[in-house]
Amino acid sequence: MSQLLIKGGKCANSNCVFEADILVDDGRIVSIGENLGQSADRVIDAHGKLVLPGGVDVHVHMPWPKGDYISIDDINSGTQAAAFGGVTSIIDFAIPDDEESLESSLGKKLEEANSNSWVDYSFHLNLRGDVRKKIDEIPGLVQAGFPSFKVFMAYEGFRLDDADLLLIMDTIRQANGMMNVHSENGYLADYLTSQTVAKGDLDPRNYAFVRPAQCEIEANYRLISYIRALGTKTHIHHVGTVKGAALIAEARREGLPLSAETCPQYLLFSNEDYAGDPEKAAHLVCAPSLKSPQDRDGLWQYLADGSLPVLATDHCPYSKKQKEEHLDDFSRIPGGIGGVATRLPLIFTEGVAKGRISLERFVDMWSTQPAKIFGFYPHKGSIDIGFDADLVIFDPTAKSEIHANDLHMKTDCLPYENWEVLGLPVTTILRGEVLVEQGQLKVNEPGGKLVGRYL
Ligand SMILES: [Zn+2]
Description:
By secondary structure, this protein is an alpha/beta fold. It has helices at residues 75-84, 102-113, 138-143, 162-174, 186-198, 213-230, 242-253, 264-268, 278-283, 293-304, 320-324, 343-352, 359-374; strands spanning 3-12, 17-25, 28-33, 42-45, 50-53, 55-57, 87-94, 120-126, 148-152, 178-182, 234-236, 258-262, 310-311, 391-401, 420-430, 433-437, 440-441. The protein is 30% helix and 22% strand.
């Protein structure tokens, strides 16, 4: 493959910001320094721009396949939106049927992704259904480069009872894998939902009350107790409450092998946004639900100080039509929000530009920590010699408006519609190849590769 030189950009890693040229050969970064004079086959002028490691989004659904609705991005559309958003690696989920083996469901996802993903990819394996028949597969999958196993503490049909959860935790620890968890007390959420529906309080505004903060707080407390007893490396998805984040921060200080993420929706909206316009409320229906304004505002500090090391998206979009079909019954609105394309401009604008988080810490949560925690490191997650040349050139001064229809997702609705943001991913580079430049796709075929992950 040919050489690529990126000249004059301000490069940002998780621990430093520096001006340098970056020379890429055969898909990898081979030299970083001033005035790299080599006559590369291609030179990109990055003066006035930031050069960041490509985004790693460890929580996307392309698609989420269960329930009354299937979310509408597939691996092709979802990863194309990712590329336009500066994301160069994703982890989706293989979700088996009740009796289906992990290997069988993974095989189907690998087939879907092969020659169909625009960015590099891997999968978490979801443990559900008859899990006692499936746990023997765990050690082999860890060794094959699939070390992360997703479990649910909520959703009928998905949640595990605690006996199964403990068995799985022990099995994963013995296999040197990790568990990632939807940590939310589903019994409480289901009870409050059914009571609210039975009373006939079906307006979308009621979604603000049926998955209260205590669902997350209780589940985090219980889960952390189990981690303390068993020592299983664990990652908690989509943290939305300050008290839930505080429990995680305390456990991390204690040295427990625990990491966690939050997502833009929990930082930018609150349950007050469910009141008012029912269409807007429907677009914000997701699980866990949005919490109080105090939670929304307080989460930033846990994100800034690294207690929540990862910023992910839980990308799970539905069309406007799907989202608005059941405004007469909140419990039937499909839960999920698109996010893979907007993580960079939203959190750069609301976090970095507003002084809530440093640029270095942004890079850390955007790329470095997800790469390290989920086993992409030391190939992805940093601008360093020997790393894959997965890079995004970002114009920090460009102003634009978010419109779902411009973002290459299949959905035509986002809760951020018409938001003004600062900063635009101008060029996305995957293993040295320019994928997207100035709003244009620059390759003809999806060239994303499966990446083996090793913890
Ligand atoms: Zn999810």
